[in-house]
């Protein structure tokens, strides 16, 4: 899975929604997100069973210039998560 860099909250929301949709499609299930904010707690919106298995999302927040340590963290996030 490629590493994606986003710069704004809107880009982050769009990328998370896209990745979760792709993950649901790979699993053969539909995506229940619809037009809901993907950063909102899904269980609190009544969209999912809180005990149901879900995709894990790897996120590496950064401040300032990207460096080798960020790359290592991003690669670890890709290896350890579904999305």
Structure description:
The protein has one domain. It is built from 2 helices and no strands. The chain is mainly alpha-helical. The mean pLDDT is 76.
Helical segment count: 2
Determine Rg (CA atoms, Å): 14 Å
Give the tally of β-strands: 0
Helix residue percentage: 25-40%
User: What profile does the largest beta sheet have?
Assistant: none
Tally of individual domains: 1
Shape: globular
Short recap of the structure:
The protein has about 80 residues and is mostly helical. It has helices at about 10-25, 70-80. The model has no long low-confidence stretch (mean pLDDT about 75).
Helices, strands, pairings?
Elements: H1 9-27, H2 68-80
Relevant terms:
mainly alpha, globular
């Amino acid at each position: 899975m490629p590493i994606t860099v986003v710069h704004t909250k809107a880009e982050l929301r769009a990328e998370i929604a896209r990745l979760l949709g792709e993950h649901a499609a790979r699993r053969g299930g539909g995506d229940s997100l619809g037009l809901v904010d993907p950063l909102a707690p899904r269980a609190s919106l009544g969209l999912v069973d809180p005990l149901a298995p879900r995709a894990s999302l790897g996120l590496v927040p950064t401040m300032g210039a990207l460096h080798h340590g960020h790359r290592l963290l991003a690669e670890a996030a890709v290896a350890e998560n579904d999305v």
